[in-house]
Amino acid sequence: MEPDSLILPFERISAADLPHVGGKGANLGELARAGFPVPSGFCVTTAAFDAFLAGLGETQTLYAALESLDGKDVDAARRAAEATRAALGQAPLPPAVADAVLAAWRALGTEASWAVRSSATAEDLPDASFAGQQDTFLNIRGAEALLDAVRRCWVSLFTDRAVLYRARNGFGHRGVKLSVVVQRMVMPEVSGILFTADPLTGRRGTVSIDAGFGLGEALVSGLINADLYKVDKATGEFLSVQVGDKALAIRPRPEGGTREEPLPEATRRARALDDATARELAALGARIEAHYGEPQDIEWCIEAGRIYVVQARPITSLYPLPVPAPDDGPHIYLSFGHFQMMTDPMPPLALQVWQLTIPFGRTTSGTEEPPHETRSAAVAGSRLFLDATPVLRHPVLRRRVVGIVRHAYEDLGRGMDALASQPAFQRSARGGRATVRGVGRVALPLVTRMLHRLLVADPASLLSRVETFSESLLAEMRARLTAAAPGAARLRESRRVLSELMSRVLALPPNLLVGVVAKGLLGQGIRRGLLGGTQEDLSALERGLPGNVTTEMDLAVGDLTDLVRPHPALAAVLRDRPASEALAAAREFEGGPAFLAAWRAFLDHYGMRGPGEVDLSRPRYKDDPSLLLAAIVGGAGPAGANRVAGEHRAHHAALAARAEAAGERLIAASRRGLTGSARARLARRWVRLARAGLGLREHPKFLIVRVLELVRDAVLEAGTLLVQRGTLATADEAFLLRFEELIAALEAERAPDLRPLAEERRATLRRDARRAPPLVMASDGEIPVLAGREDLPPGALSGTAASAGVVEGRARVVLDPAREVLHAGEILVAPHTDPGWTPLFVHASGLVTEVGGLMTHGSVVAREYGIPAVVSVAGATRRIHTGQRIRVDGTRGIVEFLDEGAA
Q1: Exposed, middle or buried, 641 (CB in 10 Å: 0-12/13-18/19+)?
Q2: Which residues span the membrane (predicted)?
Q3: Residues 6+ apart with CB under 8 A from 4
Q4: DSSP code of residue 125
Q5: First-to-last CA distance in the chain?
Q6: 47 with 19: CB under 8 angstroms?
Q7: SS3 (DSSP) at 261
Q8: Which residue, 2, 31, 626, 854, shows the most beta carbons closer than 10 Å to its own?
């Protein structure tokens, strides 16, 4: 082995050397080469690590044990890690490696103290920091101590925490190697961490500095409450200064190693940084961020008044900024996924579908090719965010919109208000006449149609109006797509269909809005004493609504369950075999033919639906019926054995009867005094409109999903053509591209190979799947931190009260409704629920979700079914476990643990 392959000095290292010197070493070399103040040093390369492992001789067995870990069994990970460390502890240090390390050390000066730090190749990466997974040794002095520290760094690649972290995050153990950074030890008076973006709020314009006395280990180990300085990156202005109680400092020992030194009272509460030094640090951080082109987490220290940088890495916890970035001041974005109760990432074509479909902020020019995408939406972290800036910049619109949103989705309204109230946003606000005109162009026709429904139309005609319109529009768009030739022509027509779809569908919302308005008018009349009745009867109007297409689908699932329940053998085959195999075998069992006939009829009507259906790439029920079979099996299993056929329909009918009775009580209570007859007639009309209109809530979404099915078929057809040409590996890779990319590939004389691009975008989706999208965010990345409520019982979880009532029962946490079975009577705990999830509602006794508001899908369906629901419960699927007994208070918005010690 040549010494040059074993040792690399900082001045010869760049970011491209990560495979040889790991993340920490590559960053330090890059910083040093760029002229930033980095203490001198060198890296012991991964080639030296390979030579060390080669001396062991049994690495294949050790790695096989590590690769078998699934990240869930902590004890197994601990045993495998311990066995690996024990074996490595016996491996000899290769003489060539020892000689190269000592030669580099002598060249830099043997009298200095040294920091010896681990640097893994899977470390300080843009999407995984691996912070604290391997060991660091400080104030190392002498040849023997140096070589021992290098060995201990290598062994620390297999600490319990490092092995478990890699297993849980899907990083293979064989592919991760370790370099060792050997760096002159700075003896600092002050040290700390600097973030070039606020790690708590995400705001990119704020530099956040933690500082303490002595070595930084006291801070990163949590031994002190460090000072916190927040500085505006652009102006150098201090946004806040919090002086911490720095009880101790870690100092180097003269003989090597470190010690803890208690600090006197006056020192521990003194500022570690003066204003000038804090600003100098902030400016240095901004320069380092500019060099890397992304926010950085920087370790720094000050020795004899001079600032040194001892590490810089990307801040991996920040949510990505919306793209494209605005060029006219700060903007405020709302999560499209939270509105749709589906917060998972979407591939490029699924995102483009909505950018074409959303009619706001999009210019049109008739026959223009291709249709324009909206400027009112941006993409961040493979999710879509709607730009609410125009309405929030207008003071009157802002008050109205925020007030409406806070009523329907409290946390969203609070977040919008928090960001819109900031001085920077206020400074960018302007009159907004164009915004008012734009809102008027959209709102005026809606309001006009809604008023017609409210004042003139027969409530009984609303459903037929909506169904006639929907079927006509669907038939028109199906005919247009069928007429286009398969491939590029059909994709072009798909774009045109999408660009027209939402503006056509806007004819439907007035039928829903009249229900919302009528219910609101009844509530106003009751509160002001103009009408009679109670709020309980008013709330009951939302139970058992007529005409709701999603409820009808769920009742049809209950019918399928009734067909399976009397036949245990049929239920067993549906439960124990894969979906396609189970359905093929069902006809051989008693009850199977009748079930399959009803099953085919169900798919004919609802086969285009499915979980996450706003994502065009997601399989529909007709593609993957696993969720439906899981729902049927859950209702037909032991927990549902005591249920009788038709019980679900009887329950819905009873809810409808109680709602009708509540409506009659509202009408009767309004029939008093000289004007009672007129008030009663008005109340009767509003009651009928409320029930008829609210029952139509799902029809616009149902129509959109049916049109999306046509587009989805066209995209998969194009994908199949590209597979035949060798351009893609599978047809569904087409969703990883955009329309224009697919069309260009289909029309190219020589088929391009798009498989590497598809794999790159698939990797982006996997990375973004680990991110939690914010409900609302600013264009500079800020995510508002909302204050919690103060009326919580000890250990309880808070959320938004979405459907009144209280229920106690066993929780069932469902992350994938196609894989996890909800049994009758259990409380469904989920990250979100869209219409594709609602077959589970037939069996649920209560609902808890991590996202949602009063008018989002899960809340509305829960109220219609009469099951208590609490939504917007942060971390519900992590903090609640399947089998725990919980109490869901849908009246107060509280979830309590009933098992002893569960909280």
Answers
A1: exposed
A2: none
A3: none
A4: B
A5: 58
A6: no
A7: strand
A8: 31
- How confident is residue 125, by pLDDT bands cut at 50, 70 and 90? very low
Mean pLDDT of the chain: 89
Give the whole-number percent of the chain exceeding pLDDT 70: 94
The label of the residue with tokens 């509602």 reads 841
* Rounded-to-integer distance, Cα 605 and Cα 80, Å: 53
CA distance 616 to 622: 14
What is the rounded CA–CA span in Å between residue 889 and residue 789?
Answer: 15
Residue 489 tokens read as 């022509």
**For residue 471, is pLDDT > 60?**
yes
What is the C-alpha to C-alpha distance for residues 850 and 223, in angstroms, rounded to an integer? Answer: 34
Amino acid identity, residue 766? R
The C-alpha atoms of residue 630 and residue 620 are separated, in whole angstroms, by 15
Residue 790: pLDDT over 80: no
Can you tell me the distance from the alpha carbon of 361 to that of 372, in angstroms, rounded to the nearest whole number?
Answer: 10
Question: Is the bond preceding residue 345 a cis peptide, omega within 30 degrees?
Answer: no
| Contact (Cβ atoms closer than 8 angstroms) between residue 519 and residue 804 | no
Other Cβ atoms closer than 10 A to 393: 23
Are residues 848 and 880 in contact, defined by beta-carbon separation less than 8 angstroms? yes
In three-state secondary structure terms, 764 is helix
Residue 564 near residue 584, CB atoms below 8 Å: no
Q: Which of 567, 648, 857, 881 is catalytic?
A: 857
- The answer, yes or no, to whether residue 8 has pLDDT greater than 90, is yes
How many angstroms separate the Cα of 840 from the Cα of each of 225, 518, 642, 866? Answer: 48, 30, 18, 14
| Residue 491 DSSP one-character state | H
Model pLDDT, residue 437: 66
For residue 852, give the 3-state DSSP assignment.
Answer: coil
Pairwise CA distance, residues 823 & 808, whole Å: 15
For the chain, which domains are there? 1-185 (3.30.1490.20), 186-318 (3.30.470.20), 797-897 (3.50.30.10)
Is the per-residue pLDDT at 97 higher than 80? yes
Torsion angle of alpha carbons 394, 399, 403, 404, nearest 10°?
A: -40
Average pLDDT value for residue range 316-322: 91
Q: Which residue has the tokens 């008023």?
A: 451
Alpha carbons 777 and 758: distance in angstroms, whole number? 29
Pairing of strands 383-387, 885-889: unpaired
Number of residues that this document lists for the chain: 903
Beta strands in 222-287 (DSSP E): 227-232, 238-242, 248-252, 258-262
CB 601 within 8 A of CB 827: no
Angle, CA 634 vertex, CA 632 and CA 638 arms, to 5°: 120
Which residue has better confidence, 516 or 124? 516
Q: How far apart are CA 369 and CA 356, in angstroms?
A: 13
pLDDT at residue 129, rounded to an integer: 47
Most confident of 263-267, 816-820, 860-864: 263-267
Q: Which residue has the tokens 């993409």?
A: 379
Q: What's the pTM value of the predicted model, to 2 decimals?
A: 0.86
Burial of 256 (0-12, 13-18, 19+ CB in 10 A): middle
- Beta partners for 850? none
Q: Which residue is it, tokens 């037939």?
A: 842
Among residues 120, 121, 57, 126, the alpha carbon closest in space to that of 88 is found at: 57
Q: Which residue, 769, 3, 834, is CA-closest to 340? A: 834
Section 304-329 average pLDDT: 90
Segment 855-879, tens digit of pLDDT: 787 888 888 888 999 999 989 999 9
Q: What is the number of other CB atoms lying within 10 angstroms of the CB of residue 220?
A: 18
Verify whether residue 372 is a known catalytic residue.
no
